[in-house]
Design goal:
Elements (H helix, E strand, L loop, with lengths): L10 H10 L10 H23 L1 H7 L18 H12 L3 H17 L10 H16 L6 H8 L3 H14 L8 H16 L2 H29 L1
Helix pairs in contact: 1-9, 2-4, 2-5, 2-10, 4-6, 5-6, 5-9, 6-7, 6-8, 7-8
Length: 224
């Protein structure tokens, strides 16, 4: 998605996307993806500050922390915005799937107080929650192996992450209408109460990184 300064970042736009988005009529990435990316980016920044203060105690208890299966060896070199856009582009999961995924992430963090979203686990957590949410919402879905390729992991890892997530959640996957609506309202407030700036900042950062990557690829081709 190409960032535009006159892009409609509003609660009305978000609600339209969630309830009325059409792949045929709408060419832009749904706003809910940018709002979710902004929320998670800020959560990561907050957790990094907390992590630096509690680094010694975290190392001492790291082996006992649930959810370690989501950790990868190195922090992926892709922004949350770009990663969510990639998932949307190749899975075509509807905007409501991302709201459900947000519900699952919130439940997961509430069920595991010792779990903290970091740069090492956020990408795997996102692809897992979005895949599970897609299975809950959509009538037709891709296989786990396809989600794994989109997410940049192996099929075996994808299967393991899904099972681990389901058991840690005690299979609490149902989201009723009132819960869904409350999370939509929360996302709308994120847009209306000063959140628009953070969302625009997230979009600009993602576009700047994409631009640098394109320049690097062009230079690499010329050098080779």
């Amino acid at each position: 998605m190409v960032f535009s300064s006159n892009m409609a970042i509003s609660p009305r736009k978000l609600r339209y996307d969630v309830y009325s988005y059409s792949y045929q009529q709408d060419s832009e990435t749904p706003l809910v993806i940018s709002v979710l990316a902004s929320l998670i980016e800020r959560t990561l920044a907050r957790n990094e500050r907390i992590g630096r203060k509690c680094e010694s105690s975290l190392k001492h208890n790291s082996s006992k922390t649930s959810g370690r299966v989501f950790d990868c060896n190195e922090t992926p070199d892709m922004t949350i915005q770009s990663y969510l856009e990639r998932i949307f582009k190749y899975t075509r999961a509807g905007p409501s799937v991302y709201v459900i995924a947000y519900v699952y992430i919130d439940r997961f963090c509430s069920a595991l107080p010792e779990f903290r979203i970091t740069g090492r686990n956020v990408h795997r957590l996102l692809i897992t929650t979005i895949m599970v949410a897609s299975k809950y919402v959509e009538d037709m879905n891709y296989r786990n192996s396809y989600f794994a390729r989109v997410g940049g992991i192996t099929t075996e890892e994808m299967n393991t992450l899904e099972l681990e997530f389901l058991f840690l959640m005690n299979f609490r996957m149902h989201v009723n209408v009132s819960v869904f609506e409350s999370y939509c309202c929360h996302l709308e407030r994120e847009v209306s109460i000063g959140g628009g700036y953070h969302i625009e900042k997230t979009l600009r950062c993602a576009e700047e990184i994409k631009s640098r990557q394109k320049e690097y690829n062009q230079m690499s081709r010329v050098t080779l």
